UniProtKB/TrEMBL annotation:
InterPro entries: C1q_dom, Cerebellin_Synaptic_Org, Tumour_necrosis_fac-like_dom. This is Complement C1q tumor necrosis factor-related protein 6-like. Its main location: secreted. Residues 1-21 form the signal peptide. Residues 72-208 form the C1q domain. GO terms for cellular component: extracellular region. SMART domains: C1Q.
Length: 208
């Protein structure tokens, strides 16, 4: 909203209020009998003032809406992390949450490098992607989880002739504030952990 225009509206309202006050004073003092057009002028002045007050109200509402939009645009949530280490993660006898301890970026601090869990700070549309490296000696099976539900997965079977496997997946999710997103390594499977191969990333696309 143009602040100069808003200022002009406020100045016009102040001026009209002053003119209307003078007109009312003259009317009450008996000037109406010598100035027949004063009453009509007073009515037209009141109509203009009403319209300007309506414009002022609309401007305030628009300014409030713009402020909300600016606050939404100002919120940045971006993270990317790797598992760290230098060796196989798993196999385990039970499902395990994969923890990505080597943080590449974590703007907004929504990802917890100690638990491996991303917690949505606001309701919105988010993008998540994961990639893993693994040896062919054991199968690999990884879930992208939203709270306790599987969203997408990636897997690879154990092979004798293939010495290394790579996999991954991605998804767009609508999350509520407080929803949790993480990667789950399925029991009796493994991935290879280091600072470069097995990664988990995501970002806020926009609020809703």
């Amino acid at each position: 909203v143009n602040m100069n225009f808003t200022f002009c509206v406020l100045v016009l309202l102040s001026g009209l209020t002053l003119v209307q006050s003078v007109a009312e004073t003259e009317t009450s003092a008996g000037s109406q009998s010598c100035c027949p057009g004063l009453s009509l002028f007073h009515q037209e002045l009141s109509a203009v003032k009403t319209k300007l007050e309506a414009v002022e109200t609309q401007l305030k509402e628009t300014e409030s809406q713009l402020l909300v939009l600016k606050e939404k645009e100002a919120l940045k949530v971006v993270f990317s992390a790797a598992t760290g280490g230098n060796g196989a993660i798993g196999p385990f006898s039970q499902h395990q949450t994969l923890v990505f301890r080597t943080v590449i970026t974590n703007i907004g601090s929504a990802y917890n490098q100690h638990s491996g869990v991303f917690v949505a700070p606001v309701r919105g549309i988010y993008y998540f992607a994961f990639y893993y490296h693994a040896s062919g000696l054991h199968p690999s099976y990884v879930h992208l989880m939203k709270n306790s539900n599987i969203v997408v997965l990636s897997s690879d079977q154990q092979t004798v002739n293939d010495g290394a496997d790579n996999g991954g997946n991605a998804a767009l999710l609508e999350l509520q504030q407080g929803d949790q997103v993480y990667l789950q390594l399925v029991a009796n499977n493994h991935v290879w952990g280091n600072d470069y191969h097995t990664t988990f990333s995501g970002f806020l696309l926009h609020q809703v």
